[in-house]
Amino acid sequence: MLGPADAPVTLEEYGDFQCPPCGKLSEPINEIQHDYNRQVRLIFRNFPLVNHQHAREAAYAAEAAGLQDRFWQMHDLLYKEQAVWSNSTDARALFDAYAGYIGLNIGRFKIDMDSDKVKERVAADQTQGVSLGVKNTPTIFVNNKEIDPKTLNPTELRATVDAAVKNTKPPS
User: Fold this and answer.
1) What digits encode the pLDDT tens for the residues 159-169?
2) Based on CB atoms within 10 Å of each CB, which residue in 40, 58, 63, 169 is the most buried?
């Protein structure tokens, strides 16, 4: 999670780090969270698709980074470098390098990437997504309402969040 737990608007994404449309929405979502600061809470849920060779391992990398309080830094770097590691024959070596780049304890990162704790987090996200009917990525909910995938683009996403923020009562 990024943003306050009591934010009036929650944007929840089920994403796959190897999914190009997810990568295209990553920065616009970051901008929304930045612009609305205390009014929007951002939740990212891992939903690696089987047709993406390195997606599950990338999800493990993000969660392992999260155990060192660097989830969002790894999240952003994985999307920024998506074209590089997605086509790599050794994505794991790149993930290790990214861990060093964002200042992680690399030994701990490598152990955490293979840990049951990390694998269970990714599996729990995926199970929750399936229970909500998620089939593709990105799937985004704003205040528990799924955004129509046909209208999912940066402009429409911002408009949806704008409307949700305007419809919330200011704290009394």
Assistant:
1) 999 999 999 86
2) 58
| Proportion of the chain in helix, strand, coil states, percent, rounded to 5 | 55, 10, 30
Token pair belonging to 157: 């996403």
Distance, in Å, from the CA atom of 108 to the CA atom of 96, rounded to the nearest integer, reads 11
Query: What's the token pair of residue 19?
Result: 């999914």
Cβ atoms 6, 163 nearer than 8 A: no
In the structure encoding, which two tokens stand for residue 58, read together?
């990338």
Neighbours of 126 (CB within 10 A): 19
Report how far residue 60's alpha carbon sits from residue 91's, in angstroms, rounded to the nearest whole number: 12
* Tens-place pLDDT, residues 52-93: 999 999 999 999 999 999 999 999 999 999 999 999 999 999
Whether 114 is covered by a domain: the verdict is: yes
42 φ/ψ angles, rounded to the nearest 5 degrees: -110, 130
Q: Is residue 4 part of a domain?
A: no
The predicted model scores a pTM of: 0.94
- d(CA 137, CA 129) in angstroms, rounded, equals 10
Number of domains composing the chain = 1
For residue 103 the two structure tokens come to 């200042």
